[in-house]
Amino acid sequence: MLNMVFLTNSWLTSFNQPGLCIIMAILLHYFLLAAFTWMCLESVHFYLALVKVFNVYVPKYILKCCVAGWGIPAVVITLVLIINKDFYGNGSLSESHPYTNFCWIQDNTVFYISVVAYFFLIFLMNTAMFITVLLQIHSVKTRTQKTSRFWKQ
């Protein structure tokens, strides 16, 4: 959906409908944040599968993942809309971006907080999960090598 909204965004912007542009900007923002959130959930699943291998039963795991994957971005979008719906719009209508024909977030502060900071938090969490998984794999490898040396002796 992110790709579809991105590819149709500039075409739908050419209709010069402010409401349509706001909807496209909201959808683009939502699906971008959803993609980041699902990326984070994949790293959590990776952690559970490789580090917490046994005794990891989570009741209604898929439902919880879906609520987080689709709900957290919805909360962010709702907060931005509650603050001011005019944060979304067509960049060509502003004097600071006279040649853009794309519906997106118009305020730099909102962009840096709701996209860049969001991505940075996801990236930090993914990096932490990745390092934890690597350390776990390394410790398993070390234990296996020690055990095989013991049996060879």
Question: Can you give a write-up of this model?
Answer:
It is a single chain. The chain has 153 residues and is mainly alpha-helical. The protein has one domain (1-90, 104-151). 74% of the residues lie in helices and 4% in strands. It contains four helices and two strands. The chain has a two-stranded antiparallel sheet with strand order 1-2. α1 (2-13) packs antiparallel against α2 (18-50) and α2 packs antiparallel against α3 (61-83). It is elongated, with a radius of gyration of 22 Å. It starts with a helix and ends with a helix. The mean pLDDT is 88.
Summarize the structure.
The chain is mainly α and 153 residues long. It has four helices and two strands. It has helices spanning 2-13, 18-50, 61-83, 108-152, and strands at 88-90, 103-105.
Shape: elongated
Look at the structure and give the mean pLDDT. Answer: 88
Helix coverage percent of residues?
over 70%
Number of domains: 1
Instruction: Give me the secondary-structure category.
Output: mainly alpha
Helical region count?
A: 4
Number of strands: 2
Q: Provide the spatial order of strands within the biggest beta sheet.
A: 1-2
The low-confidence parts are none
Order of helices and strands: HHHEEH
Return Rg in Å: 22 Å
**How far apart are the termini?**
59 Å
Quick one: biggest sheet?
2 strands, antiparallel
Beta-strand content bin: under 5%
